TrEMBL record:
Any Pfam family: DUF4295
Protein name according to UniProt: DUF4295 domain-containing protein
Species this protein is from: Winogradskyella pelagia
Length: 50
């Protein structure tokens, strides 16, 4: 299950995106949020991975 929360960040000449997804912990079964800052073209691939 992924929560797609995307914010555009601009630093100088680079354009970056911060993506947040919600993943279920295999040990406890609780949900946690994983954040990553990357180029906008990699967001959909990152969100579709488990």
């Amino acid at each position: 299950m992924a929560k797609k929360s995307v914010a555009s960040l601009q630093t100088g000449s680079k354009r970056l995106t911060k993506a947040i997804k919600m993943v279920k912990s295999p040990k406890t079964g609780a949900y946690m949020f994983v954040e990553s800052v990357m180029a906008p073209e990699f967001v959909n691939d990152w969100l579709s991975k488990k």
